[in-house]
């Protein structure tokens, strides 16, 4: 924006022989037309304030200028005002200003301090010529939070305190810091009697003000010495009145910027350094900058410190935890291609940066997007680098005292004027573009406000609905202004014709078919995104006709469900949707156009009902309709509109009642005489029983206190029972779904349903009926699911067991026996169940090895297993060794155990006889012929051989056979491919297992090495035996021994206690205190160590041979934490011959003996073990 330049001649004083006196300055006439308003706006939620109720005020009422911005994106973000009253005083005094501070304190010349009020009227003039000659120029200023005290720092090191109410000098401090160094910064903290100052020597001091017996004193404490690094910027954390109770304000945080790093310290309750952060590589001539701001993040308000030196801005989030510790968290940094000389927050999301070329850059912190650039060269910014000359690396352009910010306003001090920058509210930003007649840019900016994507927003509601309402009115205003401008630019003659020509667009587009089609297709994305909600009737009809003619029926449905269709022919639209299978659009038209929620259900039921009643298979179209019907019913009962949105709240109870009444109708509207009762519920049950019951279950969840809804619930359950029980049309699975649904409902604590228990008994008889063998597995699975969801309480357990045994439902029997902890009877269930007989050994192994079972239960299972041991091939092999049981073949032949007989014959060497026995056992009525049985048996034998004999040897043996020597390889193609597939699978399995074990072993050994090689830290500085301190001098010859437990001993003390064992190489020591606490004498430990099993892992044995005593003890501690077999032991066990597997369950072993697989604690630990505690 163009800034009105100040004419020096307008305010200049005629040349006189003598300079103006203090009285003449104080008697300058006040310009009442230039009010000075200091508004204390909210520093946190400025974006949420209504523009009508809280407009951000400026510190001046002077004319605002215009800024050159990138208006196409963000518009003009900043408003710049010139404070004419203050600027006139500066020009009238004919001196160069030095310092600008809060409440517009302008320091003129070297010793005068001018205080202006809110109306820019001069109220006080502090200081004298004599004071200036003695103290030097004023170099720093600070006003406390209630604007009652003023601190002034001088170039020669003195500090004065003034009372702003009457201009009285309260304190003069001359010994607060080393003499001869200028005061760079002096700042009040939020504590009324605490301030800090920073001198040109780089030191920082705390100033504590006291008043005792009427005497005002000041105590100084050095916080940072310049000898350790020169501090050139300090910034205490200030909290506004609304944040005075924030927990972090009690610490009086102070940020300090030196030439190399940032320090964050707390002054209260005691001095403490909370954080140091180095800059890294920066330009030595750049200026360190600091700025605090409270920001709302993650539902909490915490301060953020922004600091920079050079072109990178860092952000540190400071927060306090429950224990009182201050945590500093680094946020995402911001980097721009320029050097900064000023850094200020204008709101919690926006930064205003002054670069070295005297341009302001407005940046949005969350998105790191630059919003605007403003040229400030006309300001002629005042630099105060003269006091920084002792800091060798600080650049010439330091303007700490020329920029100050407060409550969303930033003031800049120029040589002849003072400028103030504030954020424009959203209306101003739009109006600024309208003044320039940039209507498209203004509309685009208003749309960003509407969508909530605009940056640096001020004066808008936070609630989306209210925000969109206010912005929508502004957008209408923009369009009206555009129309008004267009009309004003029309010729005087024919305005109406021109308006029609410009604004009646659609009739002109209809004339051209291509333009009409492009226009209608362009409407679709706006309709789908709900940016257009209503169209005129002609446009809507043409849109539907165009889409229908071009086969774009999906687009028709998408547009219909997002539009207001009250101005269309409902019947015509419904017929079109039905003919084109647009069921979602049809439902939407009925619902929104006529508030009719039942007619869509009737039409869908009329379509899917007949094929279901006739038992015909459903087409894909019928399946789609049925699924949509279920979803539609679920939405209506849940108060949701279909396919999107919500039903109006006043219609929700009415719609639910209508849907329930519709479902429980006795007959349909156009019912035939042969129609069964409750046709709608019956249709849904036949279509998908489980999903329909799921819809009812979700609906019943909301029936808590609604009496009428509970009545509907009971009514529907009664109808379900009446329709499905004693009805042969439903399968056992469907009936089971119903009673599973009922069992879940009855198991709820707030259940109000009543179901006759005899119905459960009736269903039990139905499911356990032995007549239908084809559905045996399905009926058993349904009954098992019913019992698992809580239905067992509905049956007599004894009667249930009897029926399950008669129906051969062995899984049901297992479920009941498991509830009663009769695990031995479950063994019989596995033996009787032909589908799960092979899983018996796993079950027995789990019972005997897994925790959670008592010793009596395990004993009963073991005894039961021994009773049935004679009827298994493996058990026969384990009980009857070859050399001790003659005539075993006769026993197995008597009981027709063909596999056992073949096994025994094979062990005797009669392979031909074993094959004949297997062939004889394979011939059954199911086999077509002996040749097919022989072929099947051959396949089985060869597949079994492939696990023990190399596949190439088997294939070579087959190819040598004369039968397959002449083109009959096709008969064994399946066999060869199966062998190759088995070989590839086993090879992959072996490689994967080996990799897992190697990785696991490497992990354990690496962590073991880390544990045994780490340094040891003693708990005390004295010996735990003699209680004397050990000598820390390196020249001492006394040996000290430290154990991993942290105990420390003299070597001689341990020798006296005899806790060492002399080996071939050196002593092996053990901790005297730890071994004493364990209740065993130290001298007994070597024997205990030597008595450990020799079958320990190889890694342990190597460690004992190569590690020293301390590492050995650490290894023992690590092995104790990680219990279980070692990886090498597992690998060793895997390499043993398969013959060792004969030691099965018939020979239970005690833990710690025999194979590791028989240990109760054995598990293959392929995942990493827990970390070793330090």
UniProtKB/TrEMBL annotation:
The chain crosses the membrane at residues 93-114. The keyword Membrane applies. Belongs to the VPS8 family. One of its GO terms (molecular function) is zinc ion binding. PANTHER family: VACUOLAR PROTEIN SORTING VPS41, VACUOLAR PROTEIN SORTING-ASSOCIATED PROTEIN 8 HOMOLOG. It holds the Pfam family TPR_VPS8_2. Residues 1023-1075 form the RING-type domain. Residues 1088-1097 have a biased composition (Polar residues). Keywords: Membrane, Metal-binding, Transmembrane, Transmembrane helix, WD repeat, Zinc, Zinc-finger. The keyword Nucleotidyltransferase does not apply. It comes from Cyprinus carpio carpio. Gene3D superfamilies: YVTN repeat-like/Quinoprotein amine dehydrogenase, Zinc/RING finger domain, C3HC4 (zinc finger). This is VPS8 subunit of CORVET complex. GO terms for cellular component: CORVET complex; early endosome; HOPS complex; late endosome. Residues 1075-1097 are annotated as: Disordered. One of its GO terms (biological process) is endosomal vesicle fusion. WD repeats lie at residues 131-172.
């Amino acid at each position: 924006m163009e800034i009105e330049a100040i004419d020096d001649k307008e305010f200049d004083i005629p040349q006189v022989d003598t300079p103006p006196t203090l009285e003449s300055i104080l008697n300058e006439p006040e310009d009442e037309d230039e009010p000075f308003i200091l508004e204390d706006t909210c520093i946190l939620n400025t974006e949420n304030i209504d523009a009508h109720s809280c407009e951000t005020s400026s510190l001046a009422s002077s004319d605002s200028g215009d800024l050159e911005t990138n208006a196409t994106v963000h518009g003009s973000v900043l408003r710049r005002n010139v404070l004419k009253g203050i600027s006139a005083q500066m020009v009238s005094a004919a001196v160069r200003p030095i310092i600008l501070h809060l409440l517009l304190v302008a320091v003129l010349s070297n010793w005068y301090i001018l205080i202006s009020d809110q109306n820019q009227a001069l109220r006080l003039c502090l200081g004298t010529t004599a004071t200036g000659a003695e103290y030097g120029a004023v170099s720093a200023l600070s006003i406390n939070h209630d604007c009652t005290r003023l601190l002034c720092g001088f170039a020669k090191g003195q500090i004065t305190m003034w009372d702003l109410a009457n201009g009285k000098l309260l304190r003069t401090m001359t010994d607060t810091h080393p003499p001869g160094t200028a005061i760079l910064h002096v700042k009040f903290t939020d504590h009324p009697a605490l301030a800090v100052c920073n001198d040109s020597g780089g030191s920082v001091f705390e100033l504590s003000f006291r008043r005792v017996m009427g005497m005002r004193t000041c105590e100084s404490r050095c916080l940072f010495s310049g000898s350790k690094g020169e501090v050139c910027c300090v910034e205490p954390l200030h909290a506004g009145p609304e944040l005075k109770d924030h927990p972090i304000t009690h610490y009086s945080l102070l940020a300090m910027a030196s030439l190399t790093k940032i320090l964050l310290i707390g002054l209260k309750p005691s001095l403490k350094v909370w954080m140091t952060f180095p800059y890294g590589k920066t330009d030595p001539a750049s200026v360190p900058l600091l700025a605090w701001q409270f920001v709302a993040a993650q539902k909490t308000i915490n301060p953020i410190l922004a600091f920079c030196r050079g072109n990178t801005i860092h952000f540190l989030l400071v927060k306090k935890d429950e224990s009182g510790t201050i945590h500093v968290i680094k946020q995402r940094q911001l980097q721009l291609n320029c050097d900064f000389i000023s850094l200020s927050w204008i709101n919690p999301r926006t930064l205003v940066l002054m670069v070295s070329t005297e341009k302001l850059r407005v940046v949005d912190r969350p998105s790191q997007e630059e919003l605007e650039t403003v040229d400030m060269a006309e300001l002629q910014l005042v630099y105060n680098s003269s006091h920084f000359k002792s800091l060798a690396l600080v650049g010439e352009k330091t303007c700490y005292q020329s920029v100050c910010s407060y409550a969303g306003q930033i003031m800049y001090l120029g040589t002849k004027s003072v400028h103030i920058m504030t954020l424009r509210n959203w209306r101003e930003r739009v109006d600024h573009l309208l003044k320039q007649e940039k209507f498209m840019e203004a509309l685009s900016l208003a749309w960003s406000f509407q969508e909530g994507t605009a940056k640096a927003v001020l004066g808008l509601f936070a609630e989306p609905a209210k925000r969109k309402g206010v912005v929508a009115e502004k957008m209408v205003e923009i369009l009206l202004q555009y129309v008004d401008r267009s009309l004003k630019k029309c010729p005087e003659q024919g305005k109406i014709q021109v308006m029609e020509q410009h604004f009646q667009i659609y009739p002109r587009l209809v004339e051209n078919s291509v333009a009409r089609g492009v226009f209608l297709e362009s409407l679709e994305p706006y309709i789908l995104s709900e940016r257009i909600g209503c169209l005129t009737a002609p446009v809507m009809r043409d849109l539907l006709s165009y889409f229908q003619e071009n086969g774009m029926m999906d687009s028709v449905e998408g547009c219909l469900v997002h539009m207001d269709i009250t101005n269309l022919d409902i019947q015509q639209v419904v017929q079109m949707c039905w003919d084109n299978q647009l069921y979602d659009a049809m439902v939407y038209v009925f619902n929104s156009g006529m508030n009719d929620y039942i007619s869509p259900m009737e039409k869908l039921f009329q379509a899917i009902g007949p094929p279901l009643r006739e038992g015909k298979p459903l087409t894909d179209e019928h399946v789609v309709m049925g699924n949509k019907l279920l979803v539609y019913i679920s939405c209506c009962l849940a108060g949701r509109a279909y396919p999107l949105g919500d039903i109006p709240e006043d219609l929700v109870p009415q719609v639910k009642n209508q849907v329930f009444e519709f479902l429980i109708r006795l007959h349909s509207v156009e019912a035939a005489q042969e129609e069964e009762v409750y046709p709608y519920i019956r249709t849904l049950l036949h279509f998908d029983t489980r999903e329909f019951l799921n819809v009812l279950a979700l609906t019943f969840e909301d029936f808590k206190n609604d009496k009428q809804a509970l009545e509907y619930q009971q009514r529907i359950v009664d109808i379900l029972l009446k329709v499905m029980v004693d009805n042969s049309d439903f399968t056992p699975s469907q009936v089971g779904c119903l009673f599973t649904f009922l069992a879940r409902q009855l198991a709820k604590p707030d259940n109000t349903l009543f179901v006759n228990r005899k119905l459960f008994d009736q269903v039990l008889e139905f499911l356990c009926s032995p007549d239908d063998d084809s559905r045996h597995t399905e009926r058993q699975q349904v009954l098992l699911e019913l019992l698992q969801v809580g239905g067992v309480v509905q049956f007599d357990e004894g009667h249930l067991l009897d029926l399950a045994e008669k129906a051969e439902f062995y899984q049901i029997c297992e479920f009941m026996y498991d509830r009663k902890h009769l695990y031995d009877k479950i063994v019989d269930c596995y033996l009787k169940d032909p589908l799960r007989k092979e899983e018996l050994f796993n079950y027995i192994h789990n019972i005997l090895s897994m925790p959670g079972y008592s010793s009596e239960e395990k004993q009963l299972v073991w005894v039961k297993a021994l009773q049935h041991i004679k009827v298994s091939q493996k058990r026969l092999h384990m009980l009857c060794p070859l050399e001790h049981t003659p005539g075993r073949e006769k026993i197995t032949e008597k009981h027709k155990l063909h596999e056992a007989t073949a096994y025994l014959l094979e062990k005797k060497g009669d392979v031909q006889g074993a094959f004949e026995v297997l062939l004889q056992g394979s011939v059954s009525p199911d086999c077509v012929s002996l040749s097919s049985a022989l072929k099947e048996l051959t396949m089985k034998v060869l597949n079994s051989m492939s696990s023990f004999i190399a596949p190439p040897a088997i294939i070579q043996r087959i190819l040598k056979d004369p039968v397959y020597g002449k083109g009959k390889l096709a008969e064994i193609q399946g066999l060869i491919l199966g062998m190759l597939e088995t070989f590839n699978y086993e090879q992959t399995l072996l490689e994967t297992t080996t990799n897992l074990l190697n990785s696991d072993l490497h992990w354990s050994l690496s962590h073991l090495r880390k544990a045994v090689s780490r340094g040891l830290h003693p708990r005390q500085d004295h010996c735990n035996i003699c209680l004397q301190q050990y000598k820390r001098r390196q020249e001492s010859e006394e040996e000290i021994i430290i154990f991993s437990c942290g105990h420390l001993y003299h070597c001689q003390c341990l020798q006296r206690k005899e806790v060492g064992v002399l080996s071939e190489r050196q002593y092996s020591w053990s901790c005297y205190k730890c071994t004493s606490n364990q209740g065993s004498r130290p001298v007994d430990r070597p024997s205990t160590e030597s008595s450990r099993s020799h079958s320990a892992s190889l890694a342990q044995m190597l460690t004992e041979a190569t590690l020293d005593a301390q590492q050995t003890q650490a290894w023992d501690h690590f092995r104790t934490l990680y219990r279980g077999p070692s990886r090498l032991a597992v690998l060793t066990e895997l390499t043993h011959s398969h013959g060792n597997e004969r030691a099965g369950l018939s020979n239970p072993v005690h833990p710690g003996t025999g194979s590791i697989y028989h240990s109760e604690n054995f598990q293959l630990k392929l995942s990493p073990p827990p970390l070793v505690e330090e």
